[in-house]
């Protein structure tokens, strides 16, 4: 009797002390659009700039052979409508993978700028450090290039990234019998920085039983859209044509698709008002759009944009709830540690976005390391990327 009691008690104790196994990700259909085998000699394909830095990237594995595949899969748009998306999977062939990195992509305005269009993306360079890297195109790019980009729409970003993760896991099992690990690291710069935190929030709040986040590396993202709009209104200056993209995304998914009125003439003016459908139709790159817009926001945004909230027109006011909804700077408590950085003089994404996010998330109990660097958006981007490579050695 005592023996049975002892065994039963011991079993209960061991059961309580054994870490709970995480659930498996649900199966998802996917298709391989194209794939090829590559190695270090294909480094030039990632980015032309890397050709000049080959000799300095001594820490990359020159013997690595890997597979890069563009896959497509089913997900949803911001209103829950089914849509097909795509992304890239990089996986080592001749060595054991060190783990998985979810790398969210930087922004582009042209429809041909997605990673799957070229089968390579600069973010995939971490394959040459031995990691499996998955890079979702996000909607409006790759196979979904004909869609309006849901620019900085946080919930949808997380959902599309998660479905890409599921598709990548299934592809790697079918192709290599690779057991996809529960643990992941999330990374992203600029739009990818915002997307990294949006993905962290989505994983931790909705799929904590299928994904465990080790850490998040985010740089130069627009984490707080209210802070971004206020900073741009104060300076009246921008070196990147993102504001119209945000407004057009909100117009499409929050107003047009729901049958609600939205008077774009109360936000855009001048040449932008006359040409926004053409300029933001996917045929122009960011520099080409900037040539058309210029850097003076007052030249193409309604004068009410620069007024205090209570003096703005009703169309601009109607955006504010969605700016807050798609900000990832408050309303949750991140569990995984976050390593965040930003340029002190950033005319693409104001540093106020990071400062407000760090303040709010620390107040919520998040573990955040934040560094602001001298320099602008692009120079800090290069610094962050090199530091990231070194960190993963």
Descriptive tags:
nine-stranded mixed beta sheet, Rossmann fold, 393 residues, globular, 2 domains, alpha/beta
In terms of DSSP E residues, the strand content is 15-25%
User: Rounded to an integer, what's the Rg over CA atoms?
Assistant: 22 Å
Task: Describe the largest sheet.
Answer: 9 strands, mixed
Secondary-structure-based class equals: alpha/beta
What's the structural domain tally? 2
CATH architecture descriptor text of the largest domain: 3-Layer(aba) Sandwich
Tally of separate helices: 11
Let me know the CATH homologous superfamily of the largest domain: Alpha/Beta hydrolase fold, catalytic domain
Mean pLDDT: 90
Kindly report the spatial arrangement of strands forming the biggest sheet.
1-2-3-5-4-6-7-8-9
How would you describe the shape? globular
- Helix fraction, binned, reads 25-40%
Helix-strand pattern, N to C? HEEEEHEHEHEHHHHHEHEH
Distance between the termini: 56 Å
Number of strands: 9
Instruction: Give the class-level CATH name of the largest domain.
Output: Alpha Beta
């Amino acid at each position: 009797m005592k023996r049975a009691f002892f065994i039963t008690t011991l079993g209960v104790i061991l059961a309580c002390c054994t870490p709970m196994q995480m659930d498996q990700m649900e199966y998802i259909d996917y298709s391989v659009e194209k794939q090829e085998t590559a190695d270090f000699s294909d480094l030039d394909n990632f980015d032309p700039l890397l050709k000049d830095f080959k000799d300095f990237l001594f820490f990359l594995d020159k013997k690595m052979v890997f597979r890069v595949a563009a896959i497509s899969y089913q997900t949803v748009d911001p209103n829950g409508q089914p849509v097909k998306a795509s992304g890239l999977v990089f996986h080592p062939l001749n060595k054991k993978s060190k783990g998985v990195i979810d790398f969210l992509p930087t922004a582009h305005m042209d429809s041909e700028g997605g990673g799957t269009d070229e089968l390579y993306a600069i973010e995939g360079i971490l394959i040459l450090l031995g990691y499996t890297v998955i890079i979702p195109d996000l909607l409006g790019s790759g196979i979904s290039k004909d869609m309006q980009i849901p620019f900085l729409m946080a919930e949808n970003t997380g959902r599309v990234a998660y479905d890409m993760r599921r598709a990548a896991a299934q592809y790697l099992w079918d192709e290599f019998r690779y057991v996809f690990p529960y643990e992941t690291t999330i990374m992203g710069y600029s739009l990818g920085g915002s997307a990294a935190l949006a993905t962290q929030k989505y994983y931790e709040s909705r799929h904590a039983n299928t994904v465990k986040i080790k850490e998040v590396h985010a740089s130069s993202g627009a984490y707080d859209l209210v802070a971004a709009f206020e900073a741009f209104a104060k300076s009246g200056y921008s070196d990147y044509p993102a504001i119209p993209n945000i407004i057009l995304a909100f117009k499409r998914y929050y107003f047009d698709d729901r049958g609600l009125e939205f008077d774009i003439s109360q936000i855009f003016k001048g040449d932008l008002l006359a040409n926004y459908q053409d300029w933001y139709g996917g045929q122009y790159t960011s520099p080409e759009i900037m040539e058309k817009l210029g850097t003076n926001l007052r030249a193409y945004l309604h004068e009410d944009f620069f007024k205090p909230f209570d003096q703005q027109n009703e169309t601009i006011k109607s955006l504010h709830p969605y700016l807050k909804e798609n900000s990832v700077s408050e309303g949750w408590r991140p569990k995984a540690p976050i390593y965040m950085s930003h340029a002190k003089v950033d005319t693409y994404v104001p540093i106020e976005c990071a400062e407000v996010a760090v303040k709010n998330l620390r107040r919520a109990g998040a573990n955040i390391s934040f560094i602001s660097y001298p320099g602008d958006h692009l120079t800090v981007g290069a610094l962050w990327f090199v530091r990231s490579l070194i960190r993963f050695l």
